[in-house]
Structures are given as structure tokens and as C-alpha cells.
Amino acid sequence: MGSGIFRTFSVAFDFLALNTTTLNPVVFGFMSQWVSFIVVVGLVLFLSIPKKMDGRNLPLGFRLDPDFGRIRFLPKKPMMYLIAAGFFAGISTTTYYFMIGSTNASSVLPYGQLVIVYLLIADLFAEKDTPTIIEIQCITSILLGVLLVGVTPGGFDLGTLALVLIPMNISSAFVTFYQRKAKRYELRSGLKVDSLNIRLWSLLVLNLTFSILALVLVPPQNWNSMTITFLPLLGFMIGSAVATFLSLVFYVRALGRGSMSVVNSLSSISVVLGIPLTLIGNLIIPGAFGEISADTFLWMLRVFGVILVVIGVIALQAADVRSIVTIKVKRQTGDILPALFDIKGVESASAVAGLHDYILSIKSRSLGKTRSNILRKIQTIPEVSEVETMVILREFR
Amino acid sequence: MSDTVQAYILMTVEIGKTDEVLTELRKIDEAVRVSVTTGGYDIIVLIEVPDLEGLYNITIHRIHKIPGIYETTTAVVEKMISV
User: Looking at beta carbons, which residues of chain B come within 8 Å of A361?
Assistant: First the structure.
């Protein structure tokens, strides 16, 4: 929930800054993104400071991510993934700043949840899989919710919707895809790429991409007021950067304690907070969080839209079926651990001592998909001799 | 990188004792995940301890003393890859 709350604060700072100035939103975004990069570099450098913990010299950032050591250049493959992630994040961020100039905070936060639908559809295509009923219901709920959130007195804001449906969320889906690939890369045995370096390097490429797009898309005269507005807006930009960083930190910490499904469900609180933020914020500082209509029917539609989005997100996450699979292999078998972990749906793969050779933790959308997408692939590995699947009825972390 | 020792403890439980066993297992800080499952085992616990001595302490002095556990199998993790 902390992650969701800080994400809301981050958006709040952006809106507050933009509505206290006549600065072009993309120009503001240009300044804000580079301030954010400086803040992140400072924070990661601070987190690199070693401290005695559990009798060992470990960086402060170890508590956030045990894979973190210090700021580092990554090997070619994860770096390429992060460059790709940063490039698509740049496109998504450009769209975000175009959008926040013409809408209000209660709309922006739900729009970001649409990426879940794109990721789901991409997974279905990649696996040549048919969707389950719950997946269809959730996709429909989130799509309808986003449409309702975007209603205006004149009907649907097609321009904003087009920005949301196409560049913003498609790019966000690619960002998630490439960041996942980077996170799964093993630097050496037992050490994976840490989330702090992922954030730092993808943010650098994001800023470079965003800067190029901003220079091309924004007319030159809009840049003139940048120097005079920088200092007055610096506080908002630092606030937004810190809130974004804390949102990511809370997210990573929550993932260490709970399942991704629970974490994603709870962090979707940001969708709900958008409406009170807009209404209460505008009561305190009129106009600070975007133009709001006095039409109560319109607000009812937006509330219904938010509810549909949240229900879609939570239902999708709650529908997951998790299982533990124990595997025995044939004699004279080499290491099949990487092959097992490469199977989509495998959350963790362990080589173990004892009665079993490998223990997997797997996740799928239904029992049927557990069999068709995961177990069947395990059984096609020639070295596998015995497989036992134990469906998790309840789990505590 | 974490230098801890992880182990799966797969256990079968006496009929009707699952809730009591779960309550006791959840009190163990080193129990990172406690899962109630179908199949050959009733409860599977993933524990994380600093070293093998810690594993010994948890299994012998804590888990084996929980009433209601019928049988345990400990599988020490040699290597884990996770998301």
C-alpha cells in the first residue's frame, strides 16, 4: 500500500507543479526527469555506503535488495535489456507528460493500470493460449473502467484515450517485459541484477529518449521559460522524484514479503486515491490538481470506472493458482536448473539435497493452464524421471 | 548476494491438526513461506537461516517439537534461481 500511496504523491507533485505555472508540461517533464535522475544517483550512491551488518560489510541498499552491491556497469545482455526498457519508458513518459497537461489526477492513475491488459494479451499470444473466463472478465472490467474514467462533459476524450491505449501503455508493457528479463539475468552463480541498478540505468536511457522526443515535439518558444521556472518548481520536482523512488522501494520490499499478486493488488490503491486527491486537493488549492467538472453524474461514472479497474486488477491477481512441484531426474543427469527456471510460470527453481532433486514454485492462471503451460513442458525435459505436483491451498509469508 | 542457507521442509500432519501446526509454524521468523498443499505432503515450509547450525536448531529444537506433525523431510537448497 505504501508503494501505491507514494505513486499517488508522485503524480500529485506533478499536477501541483503544472497547475501553479503556465509552463509546457513536456518542458516541465524534461526538467523533472533530469532532477529525478540526479536524485536517484544521489540515493543509490548513499545506499552504496558500506555498513557492518550481521558481522559483514554490506551496503546500506542490501536491506532493500540483497543483490545490490554498488552502482555498476552491467554486462552487455542485461544492459541491452535496460536500454530497451529505458527507450520504451521514454515513450511512455513523454505520453504521460503530454496527457497530464489536459486531464486531472483522478484519470491519470487508473490509465496506468491498462498495461496489465496488454501484458496479459501478450502472454496469451506468446503462449498461443486461450484466455480463461476470469482473464476475459478482468480484461473487460479494466478496459470498461478506463473508458468510464476518461469521460468528459462532451463525451469521450478520444485524443487522451488514443494516447493511453497506444503509445503509453503499449510502451509500458515493453518496459515491464525488458525489466523482467534484466531482473532474471544471473550475473554469476546466485547473484542477479539488482533493482536499484535497473532503476538507475533504465532511468538514464528514459531521460535521453524523452529529451530527444521533447526537443522534436515541443516548439522552441516553449523552452524560453525553463530557466525562470526551474527554481520555483525545484521543490515539486524533488518531491516527485523522492516519491517515485520510495514507491519503487516499497514495491520491491513488499515483493520480498508477499506474493506479486498481493503486492500488485494492494498497490492499485493509487487508482482509488486519485479521486479524493483531486477533489480534496482542489478544495484546498483551487485548480491545483486539474480542471474538475461540477457534474455529479460525470463523477459517478468516474467512480464506477475506478471501481471496475480496481476489481479487474485484484480479481486477476487473486485468480492465480500456485503449486509446488518436486522432480527427480534420471541417473547421470547434468544440471537442468536453468532449463526448469526458463519455463514460463516458474517463480523459483531450487536444486536440493535429499529425496528430491529439484523443487519448483510455479504460478498459473488456472489448474488447466498449470498442466498445459508448465507441467507438460517439465515432462518434455528428457532428463526428468518423476514429477509430483502439490497445489497450494493457502500460503503464508 | 545473500549467504544464507535455505531449506524446504516437507511435512505430513496428523488428521485434524493442520491449523495448530500452522499456528506454531507461523511463529518461526525463519519460516519465509508456509504453504498448505494437496498431494503427498500436507505443509511445505521454506526456511532461511544463516548456516547449517541454524538449520539444525530450527528443525530439531523448534519444528520437531510441534505437536501434530507426523513426519518431516528436509531438502537443503543447493542453488535457487528465482524471479
Answer: 82
% of chain B at pLDDT higher than 70: 96
Residues A299-303 have a mean pLDDT of 85
Residues B70 and B36 sit within 8 Å (Cβ to Cβ): no
Separation of alpha carbons A326 and B66, rounded Å? 25
Task: State the amino acid at position A9 in one-letter form.
Answer: F
Domain boundary (A289, A318, A347) is at A318
Reported confidence tier of residue A218, pLDDT bands at 50, 70, 90: confident
CB pairs under 8 A between A and B: 98
**CB contact (8 A) between residue A189 and residue B79:** yes
- Chain B residues touching A66 at Cβ < 8 A: 1-2
| Measured distance CA(A359)–CA(A379) in Å, rounded | 14
Q: Do both A90 and A188 map to the same domain?
A: yes
User: Does residue A360 lie in a domain region?
Assistant: yes
Measured between CA atoms, how close is A351 to chain B, in angstroms?
5
Closest residue in B to A321 (Cα) is B37
State whether A153 and A199 are in the same domain.
Answer: yes
Domain boundary among A264, A290, A318: A318
Instruction: Please tell me the least confidently modeled range out of A11-25, A39-53, A284-298.
Output: A284-298
* A30 contact partners, CB below 8 Å, separation of at least 6: A210, A211, A214, A226
CATH number at residue A336: 3.30.70.920
Question: Do B75 and A359 lie within an 8 Å CB cutoff?
Answer: yes
Query: Closest Cα to residue A321, out of A246, A231, A261?
Result: A261
CB A161 within 8 A of CB A150: yes
Does some domain include residue A396? Answer: no
d(Cα A30, Cα A36) in Å, to the nearest integer?
A: 10
Residue B33: what pLDDT? 92
Q: Residue B1 above 60 pLDDT?
A: no
A397 interaction partners in chain B (CB closer than 8 Å): 32-34
Question: Considering the domain boundaries, does residue A397 fall inside one?
Answer: no
Domain that holds residue A387: 321-391
Q: CB–CB of B37 and A390 under 8 A?
A: yes
In chain A, the number of structural domains is 2
